[in-house]
Amino acid sequence: MTGRAAHERRENFQRHRCAPLVFQAIIYSNDVVTMTWSAIAGQTYRVLYEEDLNNTNWKDLSPDVTAVRNRKQRRFNHLRRATVYRILVR
């Protein structure tokens, strides 16, 4: 790889790199789960859940959401408390 190609590849990687997504809060109250996580304004996120970590078929919590600020908060009704969550960047 030439010096220029390596430089362009490094610039492309840095342009698409983002800060790690971090859950800031997950609150369960009255059958409602409220999640807050770090986000990038304009980025779209999909929340998924699974009740058993031995399963690999995670379920979507639709619809996808787009962050307006550097934090995103989302509420879900009627989820079980012992659920595991993950967030995908779309």
From the 3D structure, determine the CATH topology. Immunoglobulin-like
Helix residue percentage: 10-25%
Q: Give Rg in angstroms.
A: 17 Å
Number of helices: 1
Provide the β-strand percentage band: over 45%
Specify the CATH architecture. Sandwich
Top CATH class: Mainly Beta
- Chain-averaged pLDDT: 77
Main sheet: strands, sense, barrel: 3 strands, antiparallel
Number of strand segments? 6
Explain what you see.
The protein has about 90 residues and is of the alpha+beta class. The chain has a single domain, classed as Immunoglobulin-like, CATH 2.60.40. The protein is built from 1 helix and 6 strands; from the N terminus they run H-E-E-E-E-E-E. The strands form 2 sheets. Strands 1-2-5 form a 3-stranded antiparallel beta sheet, with no helix packed on it. The protein is globular and about 55 Å long. The model has no long low-confidence stretch (mean pLDDT about 75).
Characteristics:
three-stranded antiparallel sheet; Immunoglobulin-like; alpha+beta; 6 strands; single chain; 90 residues
Summarize the structure.
By secondary structure, the protein is of the alpha+beta class. The protein is built from 1 helix and 6 strands.
SSE blueprint:
Elements: H1 3-16, E1 23-29, E2 32-38, E3 44-50, E4 59-66, E5 71-77, E6 84-89
Antiparallel strand pairs: 1-2, 2-5, 3-4, 3-6
